[in-house]
Amino acid sequence: MLHYLFYQKNPASHFVYIDLTIENIKHDKLQLILPSWRPGRYELGNFSKNIKRVDVFNDKNEPISFLKINKDAWEINTLGLSKIKVTYSYYCNELNAGACFADVKQIYINPVHCCMCVVGFENVKHTIELNIPESYKIASSLSINRNILTANNFDELVDSPFVASELIQTDFYKINNCTFYLHFIGICKPNWELYKKDFIAFTETMIKFWGDCPVSEYHFIFQILNHKFYHGVEHQKNTVIAIGPGYAINSGETYEDVLGVSCHELFHTWNIKFIRPIEMLPYNYNSENYARTGYVYEGFTTYYGDKLLLSSGVFNNDDYFKTLEERLQKHFHNFGRYNLSVATSSLETWLDGYIPGVPYRKTSIYDEGNLIAFMLDAKIMQLTNNKKSLRDVCVLLYERFGKKNIGYTEKDIVNLVNEVSENNLEEFFSYFVYGANDFEIGLKIAFEYLGINFDKKPNQNVCENNFGFKVIDAGHFYKITLVAPYSPAWKAGLFAGDEIISVNNIIVKNNLNQWLNYFSDTDEINLVVNSADNVKNITLSKDKKGLTYFANYKLSIKEESNNYKTWKNI
């Protein structure tokens, strides 16, 4: 058994101290490895950078020699020793859904960040002891006995975040033989009746979708922040969701965000925690786990995370269409769709998938994967006279791979789609998954089959619609974030990162679009721009052919046809 003792010396410092006791050592050398990434975020995190100091002691509390052999591995000389203690301090000052945070109010730990793996001991019991005030409660999917948490092995340990705090508010609901817990940490007043009504609805629909629930308990752990925030991370028996502000969690867009991310993360229990690509079964915690199927494990999940809210009645048509419209705009406003396929972008998340990166370079496995799932769903329905859908593909993945602990390959996905549709859809995959192409043709076919109006609307922002550039308000100026290729802005020499200071000699202050609109009847508009600390004068002219840019997309029901009703209820 391995035992981790967690404690704080000065809670305000954000450091957590960890004493790792290792017994029954039978070798002369021992290796300890800290994971360098966390499942759910497909990039290297190099968590060892948060360790301040490591010390190792024998059972007489005498220091013994060790050597750090690479960025996240240590080798300890254990000759003649059967028991040692490794002590180290870990900096916990990132409050989101996936990292670690500790202060005077809580200890929130995602163990994959800070629990060292002892090579050769991966499959023994791992216990965590929390040295915490008696008034603290604990939220976790691990087995809890007072202040002791137990995992059956290292994989379960690092897939089981926990929170200890006085600020935990908890309620639960049951469906069949599974108990679902709702834990809120932070300043908030959850409307328990509302939450349980909607969560029960989408959870029942999801279990019906898959046919069973593979776990006996599940924990929604909500870190409630005081400002606007949105982030969720999946685990097999739980999810951590960071959301805010706390005063808004019971209504409006913030509550819709809570529902959307919660349904998405619960779907991941099946799709990525049980059903995994072969490249991630098992996880390699210390290297990239390259896979081209991100459109399945994230795209399908994004699609059904939204759609099952519609199918369960939690979302109405307008609610669902609003989420899908956002995906459409992200696709059509992203010129990377002409440069990197979704499959290649899945590999590229390990390089720069979570930052804007180089303009026009990449696509999103979440957004494009969502649209691929939507198109596949409608296409399978059309080919089978509504007898089958993408759901049948997902269920077969669960039955043939997830339940049997077998990883699927890229070819397995294509084969399952062909089997369910009773057609060869390799051309679909070649174009939409493995090709760098626009999705408009495929989307129009899907929308038409389901009886959904797919309307292209002019962008109301003058800078985007007329001149082809996007901005963010950076306080005293506007910073350009994206320029459409071959647009008037592109031809005039505006690029991402440039800062707009003035329009026709008028300093802009939270009113760029108003001034651009005011001067819209003139042939040319003069901008003063700070470009890499060099002042430039830019002359903007409208497109001579009347072309516009960054259109918005609006969805609506033509009529609730049988096709739409069948799709909606699957």
Task: Describe this structure as you would to a colleague.
With 570 residues, this protein is of the alpha+beta class. The protein is built from 16 helices and 28 strands. The strands form six sheets. Strands 4-7-2-1-11-14-13 form a seven-stranded mixed β-sheet. Helix 5 (294-311) packs across helix 8 and helix 8 crosses helix 12. It is globular.
Write the topology of this structure.
Blueprint: E1 2-7, E2 15-23, E3 29-33, E4 51-58, E5 66-70, E6 73-77, E7 83-91, E8 101-102, E9 106-109, H1 111-114, E10 117-118, E11 126-130, E12 137-140, E13 143-145, E14 148-151, H2 154-158, E15 162-165, E16 168-175, E17 178-185, H3 192-210, E18 217-224, E19 229-234, E20 238-244, H4 252-270, H5 294-311, H6 317-332, H7 342-352, H8 367-383, H9 390-402, H10 410-421, H11 426-433, H12 440-450, E21 452-457, H13 462-465, E22 469-473, E23 478-483, H14 488-492, E24 499-503, E25 506-507, H15 512-518, E26 524-531, E27 534-541, E28 552-557, H16 562-568
Parallel strand pairs: 1-11, 17-18, 18-20
Antiparallel strand pairs: 1-2, 2-7, 3-6, 3-10, 4-7, 5-6, 8-9, 9-15, 11-14, 12-15, 13-14, 16-17, 19-20, 21-28, 22-23, 23-24, 24-25, 24-26, 26-27
Helix pairs in contact: 3-4, 4-5, 5-6, 5-8, 6-8, 8-12, 9-10
